[in-house]
Specification:
The chain is of the alpha+beta class. The protein has helices at 2-31, 41-80, 83-101, 105-110, 113-135; strands spanning 138-141, 153-160, 169-174, 176-179, 182-185, 187-193. The chain has 5 helices and 6 strands, in the order H-H-H-H-H-E-E-E-E-E-E.
Length: 216
């Protein structure tokens, strides 16, 4: 009987000890459980401020680019607005020049007063027209004697001439003109062939007549 009582007391003590260890483990686990950190409001404000600053800088850059493009477009519109009209007037000037060149030299020298006055009037009209175009930014391309440049010249034919450096413009069939920094009309030219080698303009190939004319 005594043995049974002792055994029962021992079992109860062991059970109590096991319970205490379980409670202690639970307490330890609870004490060491990870604690969630509360977001710092100042960090959130800094991030938002950086984002707004980045957006502002991008917008400012876009507005500056827009301002520059607008200024350039307005400047181009002022400079090249007369390009179409100027090109049409050049056709009239060409006709005046052809009329003057069609008059024989003898007739010019021995012309009666009326004919001489007519010739002089045509010459004055041509000079006045070209002068007016020049005031609006239209200038003649001086091509004769220059190296062939496909940016300003359009080669119509080649002329064998060993006395002149190769790729030199030796005849102007039709005068060319620029407006601002653009070619309004390329000069139609004849180019020397067979003379001493000269440094031709980059990409120049006499006879091709290639030129990208820029219209306003």
């Amino acid at each position: 009987m005594t043995d049974d009582t002792n055994k029962t007391g021992s079992d109860a003590k062991q059970a109590e000890t096991a319970y205490e260890e379980t409670v202690a483990d639970a307490t330890v686990d609870e004490n060491f459980a990870p604690v969630e950190e509360t977001p710092d409001p100042s960090e959130a404000l800094k991030a938002e401020n950086n984002d707004l600053r980045d957006k502002f800088l991008r917008l400012a850059a876009e507005m500056d680019n827009l301002r520059r493009r607008t200024e350039r477009d307005v400047k181009d519109a002022k400079a090249y607005s007369v390009a179409g009209f100027a090109r049409d007037m050049l056709a009239v000037s060409d006709n005046l020049r052809r009329a003057l060149e069609a008059i024989p030299a003898e007739l010019k020298e021995n012309a009666e007063a009326g004919i001489a006055g007519l010739i002089e009037g045509v010459e004055m009209t041509e000079r006045s027209m070209l002068s007016t175009l020049e005031r609006h930014g239209v200038r003649k391309i001086e091509a004769e004697g220059e190296k062939f440049d496909p940016n300003f010249h359009q080669a119509m034919f080649e002329i064998p001439n060993p006395a002149v450096p190769n790729n030199t413009v030796i005849q102007v069939v039709q005068a060319g003109f620029t407006i601002g920094d653009r070619v309004l009309r390329p000069a139609m030219v004849g180019v020397a062939k067979g003379g001493p080698k000269g440094e031709a303009a980059a990409g120049a190939e006499p006879g091709t007549g290639s030129l990208n004319e820029k219209d306003a």
